[in-house]
Sequence to fold (498 residues):
Amino acid sequence: MHPDLTERILQHLETAGQADTLDLAALFAEDHQKIVGALKSIQAHGDLVTATVATHKSLGLTDEGRAVVEHGSHEALVYAAIPAEGIAQASLMATGGPNAKVGFSKAMSHGWILVDKSVSPPLVRRKVDSIVDGVRDQLLLVAQGKGDQLPAKDCADFKKRKLLQETVTKSFVLGRGAEFATTLTKLETDLTMDMLSSGLWDTLKFKAYNFDALGAPPTRGHLHPLLKVRTEFRQIFLEMGFSEMPTNNYVESSFWNFDALYQPQQHPARDAHDTFFVNHPSRSHKFPQEYLERVKEVHSHGGYGSKGYGYDWKLEEAQKNLLRTHTTAVSARMLYKLANQEGGFKPAKYFSIDKVFRNETLDATHLAEFHQVEGVIADVGLTLGDLIGTLYEFFRKLGITQLEFKPAYNPYTEPSMEIFCYHPGLAKWIEVGNSGVFRPEMLLPMGLPENVNVIAWGLSLERPTMIKYGINNIRDLVGPKVDLKMVEEGPICRLDHV
Ligand code: PHE
Fold:
């Protein structure tokens, strides 16, 4: 059996005393890299060998140089391409080999060929009967490893003609080190209790730690882009002093989703075409009774200075369960709680970021479910100016400074504003959200004091996520076609706080 390469090197050093790794590679007929690898493992065992770097310059043929060795120099090829009767220079350029132009001028200066201008058009003819292709002969020497026999001048000339190139190889010159031995003792990798108690540790050799070794990447879960962006939004709300609302109920009653928000029962959004109603259980039964009566009253007859809608409000409609169509249903529950908490109303700032569902036609940017980001502030004497100011502050933290507002309609806010922002990347104004001041018909039945106003706004989480991650189709972000690699390798989200 062949001894291990490390031992062959050591045994060689024992007799030879010194060796260059390049010579060892030739001697053992091994790749030089393998010899160097073996040297590294010898070095890991201690001071067995000395190693100093040596650089070797060597001449080698380029591809073109190899072609010359095989077929002849450019000038020889041109010479060979000239027939006895001569040839027009243009034709010679076509038949005289790959570098006929260079070959032509070299052959001219060697005096091998001439241009006969006594005929028209002029013809190139051979001037001598035979030639010696010195370039090829010299390159052949290089090919045979006898490049050192080449005169320096020719060598420089061939390099300039890109027939030869110099390569630099690094090797190690090895000698015997202080701890030289011809075999490698196995290195210990663990220090055990036995080694310590027996004292054996003192005589053993330990493998050095490799602090450069890369650890195996730990397997772990990955956050979906929507969750990463949600984290950033949450951070902004927290920075602004908002607390998070409990959104852990996808199923909601029509009462909290619509009626509490002063949305009339015949409103088109309450149609099965727009809303997913739930069959099992199809109805909710527990509502704060007095509040429910006040909601019924304000819808059917008005109150609090309002004429109401003037229709026959039905409990059965309010009882219908659905998948919440907006997180404003959660805001309604929270505001009712705020009005009825022990000690009475106190100013509050709430936010939520969670899923909502709409029975919509699906396309590249819409799904039947998405996430809403919602902010709500309840305080004495809030105005539309507070809403606008808050929106500027909120969007500034998202890196958005240019806002515009457009009057809009929501059953539960008055006034209502759509929020537009200028997106420098897309170079246009895009709609980013909806907002408003909650109506007295919504707030007063809850029991909030008359001088308390509530401002609120909502936006989708998907839209900024798609813009931030450069995703054009919602199906690349949500659903069965999502590329898990995208999730795994997607960068963390950092919004450009201004
Ligand atoms: N609920 C609204 C929507 O679904 C958003 C909104 C929230 C509007 C709060 C005004 C106030 O788009």
